[in-house]
Amino acid sequence: MHMVCMSNLVLHRFKIQKHIWELLFLMYIRILPEIKFKNLFLPLVFSIHNKILEKMKKIFLLSTAIALLITFDACQIADKKSSTTKDSVSGDTTMVNGNHVTGAESTESGLDEAGATFLRKAAVGGIMEVEAAKIAQKNAKSQEVKDFAAKMLEDHTKANVELKELAVKKKIITPDALPAEDQIHLDEMKKTTGLIFDKHYMGMMVADHEKTVALFKEGAQNRDTQLKTWATKTLAVIQQHDEMAKKIALTLK
Q1: 51, 159, 175, 232: which sits with the fewest CB atoms below 10 Å from its CB?
Q2: pTM, whole model, 2 decimals?
Q3: pLDDT tens-digit profile of 200-248?
Q4: How far apart (Å, rounded) are the C-alpha atoms in residues 38 and 208?
Q5: Same domain, 26 and 125
Q6: What is the distance between the alpha carbons of residues 197 and 146, in angstroms, rounded to a whole number?
């Protein structure tokens, strides 16, 4: 970047200097034939010409040096701005309610990007479990499904609070609402009741908990001690949910 800026400036200055020299040369050619005793004045003219060229060279070198210094500083500022923009873009890992959430906080807190991503994904999953459980308590037909939903609501509400506290401590911004597609899914579930709802909800719970178990196993391997401890503890609860969901799903077929 610096080299390109300086090369362009030098080339521009050289072109201007070249035009000046050509203009002076043309002036000498046109004026000299009109001067009487040109043999007498010719050496004097060339002497003046040479002195002018020397002065112009000095001015050119000085102005070029100053211009290069100014350009170098300007390029440095541009590079810093570009670097800042790239850093901000490269830190962007997810969207929260339509806004970019950067991962810069993970550097300040000591939590790596894998840990920050885990917290964000776990937050979305936790919100989904709570909201789906609320619908199930109203729309489910089977008491067993209703009881399962009550368990989901209790355990995941507690886990969500713990996750938020850990995220705040680690300076990680986590979602407070669901992505649009998940919210649409929940809105459609509200329109369903009875056995059809029970089958859909429990099938959803089996699929979701399998994914959540895998996610929390990754979190339990994180190098951060606090995150690792919380993920390991919560994983045991989620595995229990997974087993319960599979058993209930089988009874509904």
Answers
A1: 51
A2: 0.58
A3: 999 999 999 999 999 999 999 999 999 999 999 999 999 999 999 999 9
A4: 100
A5: no
A6: 11
- Residues 66, 7 within the same domain: yes
Are residues 9 and 103 both part of a single domain? no
Query: Where residue 81 falls among pLDDT bands split at 50, 70, 90?
Result: very low
Percentage, residues of the chain above pLDDT 70:
57
Instruction: Report yes or no: 160 and 123 within 8 Å, Cβ to Cβ.
Output: yes
Domain extent, residue 51, equals 2-90
Specify whether 97 is located in the same domain as 83: no
pLDDT attached to residue 82: 40
pLDDT at 135 over 90: yes
Question: Can you give the CATH number for the domain in which 231 is found?
Answer: 1.20.1260.10
Same domain for 61 and 118: no
